[in-house]
Amino acid sequence: MNLLDTLRAEQAATTAIRRDIHAHPELAFEEHRTAALVADRLEALGIETHRGVGKTGVVGVLRAGTSKRAIGLRADMDALPIQEKNDFTHHSRHPGKMHACGHDGHTAMLLGAAAHLARNPEFDGTVYFLFQPAEEGEGGAPEMIADGLFTRFPMEAVFGMHNWPGVPVGQIAVHRGPVMACADRFDIEIRGHGAHAAMPHQGIDPVLCGAALVQALQSVVSRNVDPADSAVLSVTQFHAGDAYNVIPDVVRIGGTVRAFRPDVRAQVEDAMQRVCAGIGAAFGANVHFSYRRGYPPTINTVPEAEFCARVAGEVCGEGNTLIDPKPSMGAEDFAYFLQEKPGCYVWLGNGPGEGGCTLHNPHYDFNDDAIPYGVAYWVRLVERWLADA
């Protein structure tokens, strides 16, 4: 029996874990039940277990043989503040909370891999199973790093996986370089001088200034960033005034910036600063620009990506590994791990990406048919990375 057939025979148990986690979603740094479930199962497998890493994170340590080599595998555990609209039996039991991004599947698959590797330790070295909290915007990865992740658990490389709607089940996508973008936020406050709307000459209109600023910001990417590179600047908020006949004192604008390269990210920020200063001077308004860097771009290291592509081809078969598809303008805090260690973050096919199958959708559900492929990928990755020297 080959590995996939073996894991299909074990799929029911992993699916039950996945659905249990789905029914009990927990938000960032609140993953107490999920973390306890993970830790209890690791300990039941005889795997050395460390709780409370990065607040609610869990790390399992599995050793075999005598090699000093080590590899890290990461799964995220948190859910989203979304009201689920599914009615299947494993729907969320917690109003306003939902596993709408598949972290329930990621956690279950890594537990499935831990179980298989504990029973079949056909490798030489150490595997660190990293169950990370708070991926959805709160930064669980830097919390684990700050808690000494890479000093307490010294690994050569770290690997991540995310289900990907739109990629067929049985396929894995691998990027040799950028896979996800940064996720930055900006806030702009424009202070003018309020006046009667019928007498605008008596004031400084921040609404007019804001309208000009929004339009000018659209030139930042189109006229500053090399067309061969990629960036997105989206204004998503514009707050001004409360009355029909009053020009307000203040306008507030907000939005997001996405880019795949750190230098492009810096270029966009600098250009926005210049535009804000110039538009403010032109209209006689005081423009305060605040730029907050969020998750950095997720950039795979090439040797590790090529290694993962070979493993994916072994698991899924020739022709079922997608090499260098278009990266996503979404963001992922696995990027912080890749700033510390070489590694690779892959996309696991989750089936059709239509309707409720899309990520962050109230009708989303992880595709359990993908479980054997995800578990097999983790197992083969360990066995090939930690092969006998």
TrEMBL record:
One of its GO terms (molecular function) is hydrolase activity. CDD domains: M20_Acy1-like (cd05666). Gene3D superfamilies: 3.30.70.360, Zn peptidases. It comes from Zoogloea oryzae. Residues 186-276 form the Peptidase M20 dimerisation domain. The keyword Hydrolase applies. The lineage of its organism: Bacteria, Pseudomonadati, Pseudomonadota, Betaproteobacteria, Rhodocyclales. InterPro entries: Amidohydrolase, Bact_exopeptidase_dim_dom, Peptidase_M20, Peptidase_M20_dimer. The keyword Hydrolase applies. This is Hydrolase. Keywords: Hydrolase.
